[in-house]
């Protein structure tokens, strides 16, 4: 196939794709109507008595769609596994800045950022936030350490692996316990508490705690693999 | 912030148009750019357009977040947005990050193997150029 024909074919395909998308856009613009009686409304109605959680998004993520979250966490784990298989590890930090001011700032900020991440995780059922967001915030504290200390900093691999595997096992255990003691996977097996307090929601807070630990460990591992990649 | 739109149909049409434009930018990047890194960046821009589309189309003017705080005492679909799309988009964002990390790893591996990452210079399958 010569170059000219390939060019013409790709232009034809692009034009076809764009016209199909424009037709779809016009149809979407015309058909936009407010949805009536969706699943979300039903979930909002039953949320108050079935979960006692002030944040409805949290109850959807961890309770009504708990199996989905388990699958999502396993996709994240598999992806980090693939990254760890394919990136060649070295001890040299590609992005380390040897700056005293940054090192002192990292010393001050590291515990504060970790504390803020833990706060976001533990208050995920009361305010915006949750396991994923808080986990990423905790990982950002470790990224700050990577940037500040350069080659001299390496997080404890044993601690990272231990927290990741223990939280993953805890998440699966919670699901199986719900299946055994309750009626479905991630069923409510603890007392609900009263809405608006820190210990409300029962199993939901535990799920987010495990998810937060797992995401923090995995994101730290991920950034470590990219920051300490072997020179190309 | 969006109260100036008045009717939510107009707001949804504006959001749909905006997301279509962002998706068009991403599609342009995927089709025209030759660098593998730029192509995966364009894919992640397309993801962002989809997130905006889903979240924006389930928002209507004067609706609150589905969270109880001072001023709200019970869950009422008339004053709160649908929590289901937000939860699903939260799932999708995490999966998008995971897939992007894996794809960039493959790009780095490819660069180490061949010394370039332009798709118009690929000839590993032995095709004539």
Structure, explained:
- Chain A has 232 residues and is an all-alpha fold.
- Chain A folds into two domains: 1-33; 54-227, no CATH class.
- Chain A is 71% helix and 0% strand.
- Chain A is built from eight helices and no strands.
- Chain A has helices spanning 3-31, 39-51, 56-64, 66-86, 100-122, 131-149, 157-181, 203-227.
- Chain A is flat.
- The two termini of chain A are 35 Å apart.
- Chain B is mainly alpha-helical.
- In chain B, 61% of the residues lie in helices and 0% in strands.
- Chain B is built from three helices and no strands.
- Chain B is elongated and about 65 Å long.
- The termini of chain B are far apart.
- The chains are: A mainly alpha (232), B mainly alpha (129).
Compact summary:
Chain A is an all-alpha fold and 232 residues long.
Helix percent band of chain A: over 70%
The shape of chain B is elongated
| CATH topology (fold) name of chain B | Helix Hairpins
CATH class of chain B: Mainly Alpha
How helix-rich are the residues of chain B, as a percent range?
55-70%
- State the separation between the terminal residues of chain A, measured CA to CA: 35 Å
Number of helices of chain A: 8
> Which oligomerization state do the chains in this entry correspond to?
heterodimer
How many individual helices of chain B? Answer: 3
Radius of gyration of chain B equals 20 Å
List segments of chain B where confidence is low: pLDDT < 50 over at least 5 consecutive residues.
Answer: none
Structural class of chain A: mainly alpha
Under the CATH scheme, which architecture of chain B would be assigned?
Answer: Orthogonal Bundle
Tell me the fraction of residues in β-strands of chain A, as a range: under 5%
Number of strands of chain A: 0
Beta-strand segment tally of chain B: 0
| Chain-averaged pLDDT of chain B | 85
Largest interface: A-B, 53 and 47 residues
